[in-house]
Amino acid sequence: MGDLLTGKKILVMGAANKRSIAWGCAQMMMEQGAQLIFTYQNERLKKSLHKLVADENALIECDVASDESLQTAFATIKDRFGKVDGIVHAIAFAPKDALGGDIMNASRQDFAIAQDISAYSLLAVAKYGQAILNNPASIVTLTYFGSERAVPNYNVMGVAKASLEAAVRYLARDMAKYGVRVNAISAGAVKTLAVTGIKGHSELLEMSEERTVDGQSVTTREIGGTCAFLMSDLATGVVGDTIYVDKGVHLV
């Protein structure tokens, strides 16, 4: 166990189960000494998360589609834990019908949902979370290179991730005055609950692994290692960036 994050309190938003990238980030941050707080969207996801996190007090309900829920969640966190040193935003969603076929057939409603949950939610989290963030602090979000390449079946999620990455840059500019740096990790394809919602996900995972520099897919712990670094004081000079943690897939 290291001490890179000893004394830091970090909020993790989006951990669903032991396979999720957010949990890989959580594991690495805990191993570096961080105290973690987790949000969950609903009771079903709370039950899944509770299998990993025994401390009921560290579990906070939060639906990022609701401003009221966000306000309540951050008020609860402040009451229970005081200020925190970082937020991991690992939240994305698009209706399944929008993750396949021709992108021009995606409905206006499905497109809007993908943008709201996957991109705007980062802005909302920064807005309501700013009051409980220390100075300095760090916000890290998760993206994927489908934001810049036309990955089969990724469709509206790719557009949403492009919006998310743009939001990172603008947030990094505007949050700097509060001592908060904002960055994104472009994670390689990992078999998570989110990925299995994409049509042809098995082929996507296989293609991704073939394109890594060593023929081995990136792991959630490897992604988590970069997250731990970005949350640490070693990363104070990294601002508004998208860091690829995909074993070189984006190079090809």
Write a brief caption for the model.
With 252 residues, the chain is an alpha/beta fold. It has helices at residues 21-31, 43-50, 67-81, 108-129, 156-175, 201-210, 220-231, and strands spanning 9-13, 35-40, 59-61, 84-89, 133-143, 180-187, 242-245.
Structure description:
The chain has 252 residues and is α/β, with parallel strands linked by helices. The chain has one domain: NAD(P)-binding Rossmann-like Domain (Rossmann fold, 3-Layer(aba) Sandwich). Helix content is 39%, strand content 17%. It is built from 7 helices and 7 strands, in the order βαβαβαβαβαβααβ. A 7-stranded parallel beta sheet has the order 3-2-1-4-5-6-7, sandwiched between helices. It starts with 8 loop residues before the first strand and ends in a 7-residue tail after the last strand.
Keywords:
17% strand; single chain; Rossmann fold; globular; seven-stranded parallel β-sheet; 252 residues
Task: Determine Rg (CA atoms, Å).
Answer: 17 Å
Overall CATH class = Alpha Beta
Mean pLDDT: 94
What's the CATH topology label? Rossmann fold
H/E series: EHEHEHEHEHEHHE
So, the CATH homologous superfamily?
A: NAD(P)-binding Rossmann-like Domain
Number of beta strands: 7
Count of structural domains: 1
Please tell me the CATH architecture by its name.
3-Layer(aba) Sandwich
User: Termini distance?
Assistant: 35 Å
What is the tally of helical segments?
7
What general form does the structure show? globular
Which regions have little confidence, pLDDT < 50, spanning 5+ residues? none
Query: What share of residues are in beta strands?
Result: 15-25%
Structural class: alpha/beta
Spatial strand order of the main sheet: 3-2-1-4-5-6-7
Helicity level, as a percent range?
Answer: 25-40%
> How is the main sheet built?
7 strands, parallel
Pfam family, one: adh_short_C2
InterPro entries: Enoyl-ACP_Rdtase_NADH, NAD(P)-bd_dom_sf, SDR_fam
Keywords: Fatty acid biosynthesis, Fatty acid metabolism, Lipid biosynthesis, Lipid metabolism, NAD, Oxidoreductase
Family: Belongs to the short-chain dehydrogenases/reductases (SDR) family. FabI subfamily.
